[in-house]
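assembly run, all chains below
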Amino acid sequence: MSIVLITILTLAGLGALAAVILYLASQKFKVFEDPRIDKVEEALPAANCGGCGFPGCRAFAEALVKADDISDLNCPVGGPDVMSTVAEILGKEVSKADPMVAVVRCNGTCENRPRLNDYEGATSCAVAAALYGGETGCSYGCYGLGDCVEACDFEAMYMDEETGLPVIIEDNCVACGACVDACPKDIIELRKKGPKSRRIFVSCVNQDKGAVAKKACDVACIGCGKCAKVCPFDAITIENNLAYIDYDKCRLCRKCVPVCPTNAIHEINFPPPKPKPAKEEEPANTPASSN
Amino acid sequence: MLKTFSIGGIHPADRKISADKSIEVLPLPKRVVVPVAQHIGAPAKTEVKKGDLVKAGQVIAKSGGFVSANIHSPVSGKVFKLDEVVDASGYRKPVVIIDVEDDEWEESIDRSETLKTEITISSEEIVKKVGEMGIVGMGGATFPAHVKLAPPPGKKCEVLIINGVECEPFLTSDHRVMLEKGDELIVGIRILMKALKVDRAVIGIENNKPDAIKHLSQLADKEQGIEVQPLKVQYPQGGEKQLIDAVTGRQVPSGKLPIEVGAVVHNVGTTLAVYEAVQKNKPLIERVVTVTGPGVSKPSNFLARIGTPVSQLIEAAGGLPDNTGKVIGGGPMMGKALSNLEVPVTKGSSGILVFPHEEAHRKPMENCIRCGKCVSVCPMGLEPYLLMIETEKELLDRAESDNIMDCIECGSCSFTCPATRPLLDYIRLGKGKVGQIIRNRN
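ok done. output:
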């Protein structure tokens, strides 16, 4: 009987001793952690996508708490709602970053861009890019092997079987930039989502001379410069035979869209053109984009 | 028991159907397209402009650094334009396009067939000459030859190895050079020996070319210090490090150059070009190209000018068969499928292979069954299955410590894989990424 008693007492004693040591140790080696970090982390969407530029939400939360001015920091997934909650917790000012969205700057569908050879290697754009320029005459265009779709954590992309190009589901896209990094051809770009999700961009990255680009793809930008001439806001630049629209300068007047001889400039989410040929009426529905 | 290299290796069927076809001179094309980057290293700088009249052998692009090579006009005529043209990889590269008029060569070039055996210039002059004449490794790697002739200070070359292995199936250009240009080769070897100041040279030839072994042995017997080493047939014995292992039994340490074990390797094509450069003053403006394939009606070995379109070579070999599925530039193991047939012959083009549909397709990839075949055939002692996974999962630090940079891209792993996994495709990608990281670190 006494053995049982001794055993219980010994174990209890050891436990008590260990508890005291652990308590003292935890007091002695205590690391102070700002309790706000946990709060901020809780407010963040826990997507751990890296879209903010930090390795995961925890690291972003630490950076937010540490920084004096958090106006440069933005969680693309959570958007303004989450950022204002964070600002509330921290009592800091937060700038209203414009929501961004990924756009695919290639319209080289099977129809527009004839195939010249067949690729049978590994189904990966990165592997194909390490090997050669692609199945068509355009060595800048989309391979259509879906590295970007693979990289997307938000189910915001899929490959269109018919066109062979990736499609972005605007509502799901959080502009984390994973697809931008995954694309070996730098086709995908994060652009300002625009008021009412309306935006205009050049859907081509081909830097070949006009004739070569046009031969490879019907809807290639040939760098003719017509759009740059017609743009009243100097938003369009032509470099290396390629037009680029600066989304900060663009006021969505849409003048460049009809002048493009190859229809390489795309407008998204605009209402369909009115039956009567419109001349100066577009600005009516284009409030100056908030900068 | 014949010698061979000690690790890995495979035995693809050799199918050398053009082996008995003697070298034919290809008629001059109407227009040549000469890329200004035909070698490893800095691209050359173009020295001509539109409308210039050039002679064959004239420098049209100057070497862009120490590891670089001059480019000479392969024909005489008028520069049509300087442009960018799609090369074998599908990317646009700067080229000089020349419209051919007559066939006028630089006066300094000796075009006679007479064999000139006496070497009149010094070692340093040989190295300089080889550099000036734009000679690069003609086995396919196109590494500028003069760089290999000037060992870094403190390193001593003990043996010169001449690569007559031609381990790639189908290719026969080196084989024909050994048979038809044996005398010139021996003089070329003596020139290289003089430049490197070595007294021993070994010609490594695989045992499937007994006529070449016999012919060169007879010629080498008359010379001091040159011997022929027959080798067991095994791919990739033509790889520099594999050949050194096979001939000398020494293994080049990881990340080091062959000179580390006292060896310098030159291909027979390069050796012939060195002979012509030093003795005949002729720059590298033409080379022997094998045009072959199961369906080709007239498999041939052509002496073609650099810049000749591939389509013309195929035409001369009987045209493209109807059921063509793939055309490859280079050998079937390491060559690249061509995405268009107007690409030009370059200094590194050893062959053009035409495959019918049945042979041109890859089987779909399946899961790795961890059988280890790729590990057992890898001639560099790597673990291809692991390197592929590491590349796929972006574990590049581990890929680097697993020596991904040692891969010679011979393709033995992909060839042997029972699950037809694209091992080399991924490893090549991983090599590119790891190489980038290493360059950024330095």
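Chain B has three domains: 24-102+285-359, 123-280, 373-441.

Chain B touches chain A at residues 86, 88-92, 336-337, 339-340, 361-362, 365, 392, 422, 425-426, 428-429, 432 (CB under 8 Å).

not gonna interpret more than that til we talk
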